[in-house]
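note to self: dont lose this again. the chain is below, predicted strucutre after it. 182 aa total, dont forget to put it in the shared folder this time
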Amino acid sequence: MRHLGPLLALVLFATPLWALPSKSRVIHLQCGSYDPLVDGMPGTTITVTSQTPSLKGYYLLQLQTLQGTGWVQEIENLGAVVLSYIPENTYLIQLADDAVQGVAALPWVRWIGPWDPYYKQSEELRGMTMDPRRQNEIVPLRFRVFVTENLPACIKIIESFGWTITKSWSYDTEQIVLMDVP
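---
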């Protein structure tokens, strides 16, 4: 009976779950955390397109709330491939550009926008590229190539920049390239 007072106070003054501020609206990326409908999304002018003609673009897809698994089948029916999860309630997908509006119209979609390589760039890497004292350094990078891409073709593109591939390998869910970048 003596625990009834604190329990009653907890019930009376507790904030209902639906009234709590939702952190699930913020997308957490290497470059920072953003609510795309409030903050907008940072980026560059670089356009990322697939080397696979049937799947042209990479997009971030943010869901309204946590969903079961049915949504995956629904967007796959529209031609999307889910590549990875990004906190919170966001997925990196690959999708034909002409199917974006169809996905955006689904009732459980909060936001969909193009993927930008800037999203993976850490503050440390940005600092290295902007610091004139470090311009001649060789930077080791780990680069993820999506499984929907042709790894040898991507390696040729990377080498065309003058970067040195030190190692590459494939898994079922990702392909990795290690390189040294001047």
